[in-house]
Design goal:
The chain has a two-stranded antiparallel sheet. It is mainly α. The protein has one domain. The N and C termini lie far apart (29 Å). The mean pLDDT is 97. The radius of gyration is 12 Å and the shape is globular. The structure holds zinc ion (2 copies). The site of one zinc ion has 5 residues, from strand 1 and helix 2.
């Protein structure tokens, strides 16, 4: 799969902490995984931050990344397009 991201051009470093990238994270996952790929809602991430996104009980990082993704998407497309595709406002 060719990775596309509207959030960052730097695929070498973890988007969250700046350490070397080990993985990629789909910001809107599960049923929206394919749409995340289509619209570039993907970030490079290190293993530790990736665990935090998915497993942290407070979901703080997960919510923060979703808000960033929505804001960046809206800059390119529109809020209406966001809601049509992802059905939930994170801002
Ligand atoms: Zn990291
Ligand atoms: Zn992930």
């Amino acid at each position: 799969m060719e990775i596309k991201s509207i959030i960052t051009d730097n695929f070498d470093s973890c988007y969250v902490c700046g350490r070397p990238r080990q993985q990629f994270h789909h910001i809107i996952g599960a049923a929206y995984r394919k749409k995340s790929e289509k619209y570039g809602l993907i970030i490079p991430i290190c293993e530790e931050c990736h665990r935090e996104v998915h497993d942290s009980p407070d979901q703080e990082l997960n919510k923060r990344l979703k808000a960033i993704a929505e804001a960046d998407f809206i800059q390119i497309y529109s809020y209406e397009a966001w809601m049509e595709n992802f059905h939930k406002n994170f801002l």
